[in-house]
Specification:
The chain is an all-alpha fold and 194 residues long. It is 88% helix and 0% strand. The protein contains 6 helices and no strands. The model has no long low-confidence stretch (mean pLDDT 95).
Length: 194
């Protein structure tokens, strides 16, 4: 496969991930565990459908330049995928166990999710176009995610201290924000490999 084939494959995957993530987010907001579980299943199936191809490229003894670049992109994509999967799993736990999040916590998570979606959209386009502005957008989104997550975590601590947020919700909230930060960092690492 040539370089255009690899980049199209990656771009198409990003395009398929975005509606899956949005469906999971809606499941969280509407407290519909089945929507989140469906999103997790679709996400895993999508990733599983990409494994054989990647393993075949990795297994090749001699790789051309395009294959070497593709292989270098796999690790940051795996980190992003594992982080995103963890976010959806924690959403499912929250809904299944009926753990309440405050409206502010849900808004905060939504703003972080939107920034990650923006990164994924920019990465989808960057892998095809190579536009340096898109690469810069990916980095700026990561910085904004880190900044906002830090602010939100402090606000969250205040809610916890005041008894507005419960400890069992706190664990999930922090795990989700940490996973979103990891996904954001991985997308920057990915953009460096493109």
């Amino acid at each position: 496969m040539d370089e255009k084939g690899f980049t199209k494959r990656i771009s198409d995957t990003f395009g398929e991930v975005l509606p899956i993530l949005e469906n999971a987010r809606k499941g969280l907001v509407m407290e519909k565990g089945a929507m989140i579980e469906e999103s997790i299943a679709r996400f895993r199936e999508l990733l599983k459908s990409r494994v054989a191809f990647s393993e075949a490229i990795i297994a090749k003894k001699e790789k051309d330049e395009a294959e070497i670049r593709y292989v270098s992109m796999i690790t940051p994509l795996q980190v992003a995928a594992l982080s995103i999967e963890n976010v959806m799993e924690k959403m499912a736990i929250k809904v299944e166990a009926k753990i309440p999040f405050t409206p502010n916590a849900l808004k905060e998570l939504r703003s972080l999710q939107l920034l990650v979606y923006s990164q994924l959209t920019d990465a989808k386009d960057y892998v095809i176009s190579g536009d340096p502005q898109l690469k810069e957008n990916i980095r700026k989104s990561m910085e904004e995610i880190k900044r906002l997550a830090g602010e939100y975590e402090l606000i969250h601590q205040e809610r916890l201290i005041m008894g507005i947020c419960m400890p069992k919700a706190s664990y999930l909230y922090i795990d989700i924000t940490d996973s979103l930060k990891r996904a954001a960092r991985a997308m920057v690492d990915f953009s460096e490999k493109v």
